[in-house]
Structures are given as C-alpha cells and as structure tokens.
Amino acid sequence: MGPRKLLLASVVAMSFFLYVPHLASSEEVFADSADGPTAESPGEPWLSPGPQPWVVDVDDYGAEAVADGDDTEAFLGAWRDACNSSENPSTFLVPEGKTYQLMPVSFHGPCRAASITAMIRGTLEAPSNRSVWLDRGLQEWITFEGVDRLHVLGGGTLNGNGQQWWNNSCKVNKPMRCVTGPTALYFRRCTHLIVEDLEVRDSMQMHVAIAYSWNVLVSKLFITAPGWSPNTDGIHVSNSKEVSISDCAISTGDDCIAIVTGSMFVRITGISCGPGHGISIGSLGENNSWAHVSDVLVEKATLLGTTNGVRIKTWQGGHGYAERITFQDITMHNVTNPESAVAVSNIRCSLAAAAAVGCSRHILLHCLPANSNPALPAAVLGWLLHSTHASNSDQTSQRTE
After folding, report:
1. What range does the record give for the signal peptide (predicted)?
2. Rounded distance, CA 179 to CA 292, Å?
3. What is the pLDDT of residue 336?
4. Residues contacting 119, CB < 8 A, separation 6+
5. Choosing from 151, 192, 207, 277, which is the catalytic residue?
6. What value, to the nearest 5°, has the Cα angle with vertex 304 and ends 302 and 309?
7. Would you state the pLDDT for residue 50?
8. What is the pLDDT of residue 314?
9. I want to staple 234 with a disulfide (CB 3.0 to 4.6 A). Which of 107, 115, 250, 265 is the partner?
10. CA triple 360-348-321, angle to 5 deg
C-alpha cells in the first residue's frame, strides 16, 4: 500500500486563519482565476513562429568581459535600444563563453517593443566588495521593472559573490550589525513574465524575487548557495498573482521558496529543495501588520536534508488570513524541525481536508514513512507554525527564515 494521506484542516495561528476546505487539485485551486498561470497565457503569442527577432548584443555596446572591468553602461545601452526598438520581437543578448562584471543595474520598462527576450548565455558577476552596496544604499543587483511580455532565459549564470555578506552577517558573526543584503535577481511590476533555464548562485541574500507582478512562469532554475549562508532564499514571491513555479532545483541557506503577503493563485510543482529551510507560506503579519495569501498549491516536491518541510509562518500580533492552501505529494528525506523537536525522515505525505478541532498553532501530518510496513500505525507529527511567542533568538530566525 502506498503512503497514507496526511490530515490537515482548519488551522488557527494567533489571529491568522488557514482554511483548507477540501483536497484541491491543480484545476480546482485556480478555478476562480479566469486566466491563471498556464503555458499558453503569458508566453505563446511571442514565442510562436513569426518574424525573426532583432538582436542587440551587449558586446556591440562596449562590454569587455574582463575580470577588472565594469560592463554596466554597455548593458544599459544595449537594453535601452532593445527596449525602445520598433522591431518585434526584440532580443537583448549576453553572449556565452564570457564573464561580465556588473554593478547594481535596473532595466526599466515600459518598452516600445511588444515583447522582449533577455537571452543570458554568459556569466554575470556581482561586485564582491560590500562597500559597493552599502555606500549606495542599494538592495538589489539586477532588476527588471515595469516590463510587459519579458522572457528571461539562456542557460547562463548569475553569480552574486555573496561570501563577504555571509561572513559579516549578524547570524554568522553575532557582534556584527544586522544589515539587509541585496537580492540577486528582482522582478518588480512585470506582466506576462517568463523566467527559465538559468543558474543563480551565491546571492548576497535572496536569489530571485518577484513582486507586484502578474501572470508569471518560472521554470528550470538552478539556485544554489551553501547551506550555512544566511537569508539566501531561493525564490521569494510577494504581492503577485497567477504565478507558476515548476521544475526547479534549489539548495540554499534559507527557504527554497517563500510565498508572502499579497500573493494569490500560486502553483508550485516539481521542486527539488535542499539543503535549506523548506517551502514556506510567510512569514505573515510582522509588526502587527495585516497579511493575506490565498489559493496556493504546492505539489510533487522533494525535500532533502532541509530543516523544515512545508509550513505556514506567522507573527504574533499580526492579522489577516491564509486560505485555500494545499500541500500534496510531498516527499521528505532526512528533514528535521528543531522548533517542535520532531525529527522527520523518509516520509511521503499528501494533503486531505478534514475537521481538526483544537489544532491551534499546529499542522497535523498524518502519514506513514515512505518505506514503512503498512500494518504499522500512521505517524502523527505536530509542526508548530512559526508564531513568535518564543525566545528572542527564535523570533530573529523566524523573521528571516
């Protein structure tokens, strides 16, 4: 007999309410969305056969790809021409086989081109010296903002060179002042966005962030940083609607994927996660704020050697809701959860809805170990939602996990 279904139902965490009315399929989770994230909705109009794209090569704008260089202005010049081109479609090309040095840079829309492809085939390197960021007060390395019908791909690598940030983090070096590190790749206010086939590694803090965006497809990303690197979330989604994240391999020092307030109709499938802190909804409600997340489906994920599995994190004093959250077909190997002192290893869980009275601040997992004897009783594991009524050290870790 295969793994037993796990049991999750109405969860109340402080003033937050998790509402799971039934085991939702992918279709059910997105049934209320007229145009949820599908392969057809954002990408097909400009990916179908048509006119050959006008290609703008950063090398033609003076990019040198030398170790002590600065290719930022060349990239900006190439982006401006690609974005403002009357040709359709338009391609912004970073050639393969070269390593380019980029200072913090923002690629802005709206673009005149009806669609634009950022073809990143080479390697992009961030400054390794923290003073570059601290002197300018910047918190993002590569930003795409206000661009419609943007397709970012190419098989290239973004290297955040975050070692100096990690070594000077207050989580690693306690006497140090806590400073928010930059995000490697940030998408803000983008619509009909596709991001695929890239490696993002060793970010200063979060690797990929999506905010205030709509109709987003993310797939085939390889995101990696050491397991001890602090605050290095893999993919962070906030205030965004109709987001699909699929077939990504993520190993970092924080959440592999975090879905935070303002996000709805999010599908996460086929994720390999570990090391890291698992896949999280939240944190929600920091500083007594109102927060909401709804219609999230996490399915067919494998978590290996993570500190947590799948979870919802809240702050005491916050208010709002997390509703229609579904976790199903989650495989866990050597997963631990120190906060609840429950060790979890080699289990496979799915989610079903049922009444669970008195489940305050806990998610109940009702499942069997993946390789267990079906005659054995099911393991019932209580996982604390991350409300910050514990020690100050716990509060700090929960804010940034």
Report:
1. 1-26
2. 27
3. 80
4. 91, 92, 93, 94, 153, 154
5. 277
6. 70
7. 61
8. 80
9. 250
10. 30
- pLDDT at residue 51 in the model: 66
Domain of 229, CATH number, reads 2.160.20.10
pLDDT score, position 277: 94
Q: Is residue 93 one of the residues assigned to a domain?
A: yes
Gap between the Cα atoms of 209 and 213, Å rounded: 10
- Judge whether 85 lies within some domain: yes
Helix (H) or strand (E) holding 143: strand 140-145
DSSP per-residue string spanning 43-110: THHHHSS-SPPEEEEGGGGT----TT---HHHHHHHHHHHHT-SSSSEEEEE-TT-EEE--SEEEE--
What CA–CA distances, in Å, run from 141 to 1, 129, 235, 274, 362?
49, 13, 15, 24, 38
CA dihedral 354, 378, 18, 20 (to 10 degrees): -40
Q: CA 37 to CA 22: how far, in whole Å? A: 21
Per the omega criterion (within 30 degrees of 0), is the bond before 53 cis?
no
Domain count, the chain: 1
Point out which residues pair with 15 in neighbouring strands. 319
Alpha-carbon distance 230 to 401, whole Å?
Answer: 8
Q: Quote the pLDDT of residue 49.
A: 57
* The token pair that represents 304 in the structure block: 């290996």
Predicted pLDDT at 311: 85
Tokens at residue 256, please?
A: 């592999």
The parent domain of residue 196 ranges over 6-400
Beta-carbon contacts of residue 242 (< 8 Å; ≥ 6 apart): 30, 33, 35, 36, 37, 41, 214, 215, 216, 265
Q: Exposed, middle or buried by CB within 10 Å (0-12, 13-18, 19+), for 1? A: exposed
CA distance 276 to 251: 6
- List average pLDDT for each run of 10 residues in the chain, which is 401 residues long: 32 36 42 44 47 89 96 98 89 98 97 95 95 82 98 98 90 80 97 98 98 99 97 98 99 97 98 95 87 92 91 82 86 69 30 28 34 34 28 28 32
154 falls within a domain: yes
Helix extents (H) in 115-202:
131-134, 163-167
Instruction: Compute how many other C-beta atoms are within 10 angstroms of the C-beta atom of residue 226.
Output: 15
- CB neighbour list of residue 348: distance below 8 Å, 6 or more residues apart: 3, 329, 330, 331, 332, 367, 368, 370
